[in-house]
Specification:
The chain is an alpha/beta fold and 157 residues long. The protein has helices at residues 3-14, 31-38, 70-77, 86-93, 138-145; strands at 21-23, 45-53, 56-63, 66-68, 81-83, 111-114, 123-126, 132-136, 148-150, 153-155. It has a single domain, classed as YbaK/aminoacyl-tRNA synthetase-associated domain (YbaK protein). It is built from five helices and ten strands, in the order αβαβββαβαβββαββ. Strands 1, 2, 3, 5, 6, 7, 8 and 9 form an eight-stranded mixed beta sheet that branches. The chain has a two-stranded antiparallel ribbon with strand order 4-10. A hairpin with a 5-residue loop joins strand 7 (123-126) and strand 8. The relative contact order is 0.24. 5'-O-(N-(L-cysteinyl)-sulfamoyl)adenosine (5CA) binds at residues 28-31, 34, 45-49, 83, 85-86, 97-100, 125-126, 133.
Length: 157
């Protein structure tokens, strides 16, 4: 397993989670690719998206079927939001875009979890690399991330 995936595994274990990290030979870099690799719906893929609010990185966890309502995120995060560039996302989380996980970050950052994710029995999230994911119940994901639940989703039209 790659070092970045090992760091995610360590974070899961530290949180008391037994979820196995699954590595694929094909890409799981995007929600659509991850859904195809896993054999699930794109809605059950968790996107871990880094934004910047008043100069500080925050993480938004949303279903692969949705995009983030940035006006709503701005309301809950307390200021105007911009999308983090690749370097900022890596500096904030310790992982490259396409593998940014919901846990195991190198810096503590506020996390917001979209309420729509809680409707799924289980979801798949990135595990640190662009070909590794893990399966978790969304309520468990909420618990181990300490995320704030918010209505962040804009349904892709
Ligand atoms: N491994 C998958 C599924 S778990 C994954 O990480 N998906 S993701 O949605 O969380 O991360 C990919 C997202 O990163 C894309 O949706 C895209 O919006 C964003 N992204 C891609 N390239 C860049 C970039 N250069 N700068 C900022 N964001 C980017």
């Amino acid at each position: 397993m790659k070092e970045a995936a090992r760091r995610v595994e360590a974070a899961l274990r530290a949180a008391g989670i037994t979820a196995e990290i699954v590595e694929f030979s094909e890409s799981t870099r995007t929600a659509a690719e991850a859904a195809a690799a896993v054999g699930t719906t794109v809605g059950q893929i968790v996107k871990s998206l880094v934004f910047v609010v008043r100069g500080q990185p925050v993480l938004a966890l949303v279903s692969g079927a949705h995009r983030v309502d940035t006006a709503r995120l701005a309301q809950v995060a307390g200021g105007p939001v911009t999308r983090a560039d690749a370097a900022t996302a890596r500096a904030a989380t310790g992982y490259a875009i396409g593998g940014v996980p919901p846990v195991g970050h190198t810096t503590a950052l506020p996390i917001y979890l979209d309420r729509a994710l809680l409707e799924y029995a289980d979801v798949w999230a990135a595990a640190g690399t662009p070909n590794a994911v893990f399966n978790i119940a969304p309520a468990t994901l909420l618990r181990i991330t300490g995320a704030t639940v918010a209505d962040l989703a804009v349904t892709e039209g």
